[in-house]
Amino acid sequence: MSAPTSAIESVLVENRVFPPSDAIVKAARVSGMAGYDALCAEAEKDFEGFWARLARENVQWSKPFTRTLDESNAPFYQWFADGELNASANCLDRHIGTPTENKTAILFEADDGAVTKITYKELLARVSQFANALKAHGVNKGDRVLIYMPMTIEGVVAMQACARIGATHSVVFGGFSAKAVHERIIDAGAVAVITANYQMRGGKELPLKAIIDEALAMGGCDTLRNVFVYQRTATACNMVAGRDKTFAEALAGQSTECAPVAVGAEHPLFILYTSGSTGKPKGVQHSTGGYLLWAKMTMDWTFDLRADDVFWCTADIGWITGHTYVAYGPLAAGATQIIFEGIPTFPNAGRFWQMIERHKCTIFYTAPTAIRSLIKAAEADEAVHPARSDLSSLRILGSVGEPINPEAWMWYHKNVGGERCPIVDTFWQTETGGHVITPLPGATPLVPGSCTLPLPGITAAIVDEMGNDVPNGSGGILVIKRPWPSMIRTIWNDPERFKKSYFPEELKGYYLAGDGAVRSADRGYFRITGRIDDVLNVSGHRMGTMEIESALVSKTDLVAEAAVVGRPDDVTGEAICAFVVLKRSRPTGEEAKQIANELRNWVAKEIGPIAKPKDIRFGDNLPKTRSGKIMRRLLRSIAKGEAITQDTSTLENPAILDQLAQTN
Ligand code: 6R9
């Protein structure tokens, strides 16, 4: 861990400011900076009272809580612990008997453009029926269920059905490999898997069930009893008698009514695996009460949601953004939301803009990497430019997953937002459960590339390595000083790692986010400067360098040693760059290309295609200190194509730098 120093200058020179218009301020829920300041003051005056008020207003409790925050076993904080609720009831049942019951909950657009709509009432029936099917197969409160589904209504149904019976879901992104799935089934002790035969992306039919079969064939999944298979396409897939059931088989004869199971506020709603700085992914465990409060409250605060909004978060349910702002938040808030199965470039790179027009989307929330790739596409082909679509329905834009560079911000603002829509650049993490630092659209003056200010009650700060505050304008380590309701509760099966990773002793008990940040000297606005651990952010997806290294060295017939670093990339934010020492002599030319491809495919098989290194360079060795430590900062410079200016006097083998600097 080291405090970042780069990227600080840019925040000091960014002086464009975009305040919300008077009309937006007037109509907003949190209205103007006065509205924001009032909430902050309330939180400061009575921290617990503030959260208790919001938890009562935003969540429906089947048994009210009497105690707000329990810090007695810090950092294992508990919120609203003696309260009881059901997350699915909070997303569905709460709307029954209100005008929302017949409102479209999900407007699903398939890869091929076919549209299906489902109302809240219909969704409740679908979720209840599937919940009954799970129960009939012996899935009980507290059991873990692994979900490996495409972006479909059924993906959300699967998550909500688990929540309804108090089962803890663990969604795995459909791009992860059989090995990654296998590891997660075992770590979570999953009793069931919910998957689909295939998924449709960009006109291609890609297998899902076959990957589950492969994972289960690896053995050791002793807890697993059932696999439920949604028939997304007409193509048949392998079914194992006794273990595998189609949705149709499982649902046959099941009632469409199912009483939600009340759980304690701290009951684990889900586990979501994410990359950390060691090879093993962390199962981030979230609560039910505090998490749901956050999902609902941030829909209102950050997106200023109104009854007639058409909300679209483009994230996959396999990531935290798809949990909080697809599967839970929009439903808890009673919104109409768009769910999109496909990819932004199929059948052409105007798909997002055409869909906004077609469905009169009002709030659009996506990742900088998507924006950057669509800028490129629009510049290359006028036909897919957002100007070709009517985007006048939009009123708020959002960004998430990685820092948005001011150029992309300005393009988004002008070409998508018509210079009228506030952009909420939401900083948060799998571990934070929902937004923690973000502008509020009717309050915060915007500065391109800055996530601006913490939400009321979030005590975000920038500190040095001893946990002392640094002055505005200086870079440092991003922390959150006090707990908040939607924070990570623990790492599944590994409480020690939870403490060590997020509450290191030297940081005074503060939550360590793992990012570097700097606050602007004038406004105190936060800008995230990137991860300070060995985690890369590629297209908004977190990848651990150690995970990729372990995957490479597990190709034992070929690889002796590997080191993985990130380098800046125009479209994906960061790109993965691997330095590899082979067991045979160093290849060059065509042969190097061929082996590099073989290694890329290997990594795709071990982790998933998203982890494939973009660059692979071969060396006779890696730059190491005399004590044998790989000098990653030198590799980072080489990967960027920079001249080495750092001190190399501690290097065991300085000559290796020239060799690695040559592209194969
Ligand atoms: C929600 C999500 C978390 C990491 C985080 C940071 C980066 C997310 C950001 C951002 C700058 C933003 N990140 N949002 N950096 N500005 N608005 O992405 O969760 O997948 O866990 O990634 O993403 O580095 O630490 P997750």
Gist of the model:
The protein has about 675 residues and is an alpha/beta fold. The chain contains 20 helices and 30 strands. An eight-stranded mixed β-sheet has the order 12-11-8-6-7-14-15-23, sandwiched between helices.
* Shape category: globular
Distance between the termini: 32 Å
What's the total number of strands?
30
Note the total helix count.
20
| Strand order across the largest sheet | 12-11-8-6-7-14-15-23
Mean of residue pLDDT? 95
The molecules bound to the chains, other than polymers, are: ligand 6R9
Query: From the helix content, strand content and strand pairing, which structural class follows?
Result: alpha/beta
Q: Which strand-content bin applies to the residues? A: 15-25%
Binding site for Mg(2+): 553, 559
Domain Acetyl-coenzyme A synthetase N-terminal: 36-91
Domain AMP-binding enzyme C-terminal: 547-629
Enzyme class: ligase
Textual characterization of the structure:
With 664 residues, this protein is an alpha/beta fold. 31% of the residues lie in helices and 21% in strands. It is built from 20 helices and 30 strands. The chain has an eight-stranded mixed beta sheet with strand order 12-11-8-6-7-14-15-23, sandwiched between helices. A seven-stranded mixed beta sheet has the order 5-4-17-16-18-19-20, sandwiched between helices. Helix 3 crosses helix 4 (47-58) and helix 14 crosses helix 15 (406-416). The radius of gyration is 24 Å and the shape is globular. The structure holds ligand 6R9. Ligand 6R9 binds at residues 274, 319-321, 399-403, 425-430, 451, 513-515, 528, 531, 537, 540, 542. The site of ligand 6R9 has 24 residues, from helix 12, strand 19, strand 20, strand 24 and strand 25.
